[in-house]
Amino acid sequence: MQRHNDTTAKSSSCLGKYLCSAGLLATLIFAGASHAAACDRPAFTSAIPDGRSASEEQMASAQQEISAFVKASEAYIQCIEGTSNAAKMRNDAIDDMEKVAAAFNRQLRTYRKHSQ
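User: That's the sequence. What structure does it adopt?
Assistant: Structure tokens below.
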């Protein structure tokens, strides 16, 4: 059985310091990608009630669902911080929150107009 000295063992396990560095970089990139995959981007799947015919209870329920969606989106944004494409993912989540809020606010204005 042949013995390997420390130098031989190190160079054969990493095949040189450049490949070790590349392997470390790939591991870090993969870890960031898997971290982002663990962060589930919330989707607002509930229907926003029609302000012309919705009841007060329906509007209040929709507002609670939107608040829960915003909280989940904020948690998602915190989760993705530090990932390689966090800025784009953050902006996409903010766009979703703004679209949902704008749609609800349009219906809320209609509801208030028709409930007077």
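Residues 1-15, 18-34 have pLDDT under 50 and may be disordered.
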